[in-house]
Every structure is written in C-alpha cells, then in structure tokens.
Amino acid sequence: MVDVGAAETELKDVAVQVATEAGDLVRRAREAMVAGEAVPVETKTTDTDVVTAADRAAEQLVRDRLAQLRPGDHVLGEEAGGSAGDGVTWVVDPIDGTVNFLYGAPLFAVSLAAQVDGVSVAGAVVEPVSGRCWTAVRGQGAWLDGRRLAVSSPSRLELSLVGTGFAYQAERRARQARFVSGLLTRVRDVRRAGVASLDLCAVAAGWLDAYVEHGLNRWDWAAGALVASEAGAVVHLPGSDPALGEDATFAAAPSIAEALYDAAVECGVKDV
Description:
- Pfam families: Inositol_P.
- InterPro entries: IMPase, Inositol_monoP_metal-BS, Inositol_monophosphatase-like, Inositol_monophosphatase_CS.
- This is Inositol-1-monophosphatase.
- Its EC number is 3.1.3.25.
- The structure is a single chain.
- By secondary structure, this protein is of the alpha+beta class.
- It is built from eight helices and 14 strands.
- It has helices spanning about 5-35, 55-70, 100, 170-185, 195-205, 220, 225-230, 255-265; strands spanning about 40-45, 50, 75, 90-95, 110-115, 120-125, 135, 140-145, 145-150, 160-165, 190, 210-215, 235, 250.
- The strands form three sheets. The protein has a seven-stranded mixed sheet. Strands 11-10-12-14-13 form a five-stranded mixed sheet, with helices on both faces. A two-stranded antiparallel ribbon has the order 1-2.
- A hairpin with a 6-residue loop joins strand 6 and strand 7.
C-alpha cells in the first residue's frame, strides 16, 4: 500500500528545493537591478501588467529542475502556460509580485504547488529577499521555517485586519474599489501588499485575519491557499461559491469567517 502522506511530504520537499533555487535566481536578478543593471520588461494584459526576463528565467529553471527530479509530471506556469494532466501537476508562479520586484521592493515570492486532480496536496512559497519559506502538506499542517502555523482568532469582525488586491483592468478596479470602500466600514483595516501568495500565508500566520480578492489565477493561490487552509483558515477558491463571484478567493480565521462572508455579500462581492 502506498503511504499517501509520505508521498505528499516528498512532493513538499521537491517544492521547497526547486522554489528555493528559483528564489536564488530571482534574488540575484534583483540585486543586479538595484545595482543599476537594466531589466528587460514586457507587458501582458494591460500596460500595468508586466513580466520581466527574471520571471521567465525563474520559470524555466523550475521546469528544468522538475524535469530532472519529477520526470513525467505536468507543469502549469504563469509565463509558459501548460495544462493539468493525470498524476501530479506542478503549478508555478515564478515571481508573485512582479511589480514590487520591478520597483526594487523586497516583497515578492516564488510559489510552487503540487496538485492532483486540481487539488493542492503540497507546496512552498519562498521569499527570495528574506529567505522565509512557507510550506504545507495536505492533512499535515502548515509551517514557516519550521514553526507550525495557526490562524488568528479575532473576537469580532470589527477587530479584523483584511488583505485584498486589485486587478489590472481599470473597469474592474473601480468595482473592487466600491466593494472595499463598503468593507472598510466593517473591519479594523484593509491591507494591499500586491502578492497574493504571501497574503494567504499571512492569514496562516495570523498576520492578517482574512483575505479576499477577485481575479486570481491558479498559480496565484495554489500554494498559498493550501498553507492558509492547513493553518486552519476557512478557504473558498475561485469557482467554488457563486455568492462570492465566479473568481473570488476567500480565506479567513474561523472566528470571523461567517461574519466576513456575510459582510462581503452585503457589500456586493458577487458583482466585482
């Protein structure tokens, strides 16, 4: 009989190894950029949706290493695409927070998750500058550099700190602004870091009480949502709850999850 837990732990170890190697590449690229070296930049969906040469190089490194360590597995990445298949599919965001990276800010991450049948079973989120490494294995908990993670427990919604984010399209940003303006009157405060994977990890660590954002792609949440869930968060993934909208990601501490859900619905989250 195959020990599924052991197999998933091995996948986590691969995720840590490969994401750390990609993180080293990205960190060196940032150091060169901060020192004055030009970084080639292109745009994708809009002029504000950017991709750098470092994004592409980091994803290629991930693909090459996975081909060596896990031959036959599928890979789905932000930059080079791909699709899920039978067995294990690796989902990679080579630089989550590319705009932060491009501005020289230290807050960005490499996110890598192993999924089976579309469900994340192991993953790692590595911060290249700080060196922090967030990990999770399905059914076995979530960790930050060896410390077991557990979500916060705010006593009521009014005392909760909520993370969010905004799309690149101006029309959708306007809808998101209306939603957040309504939510602001019901919570302690709102934060926007620009790195979805790290926002989800922040919920896991209790640095945020909750996180709500529309428009994330699978590579944005594949590892971070597993970290949040394994730390005890109530998590709704895109497409799982029509009341939140077709592409909403929701993660919250259980003590305020229901209240936040109700408040989000009242504030028009479905229409974002």
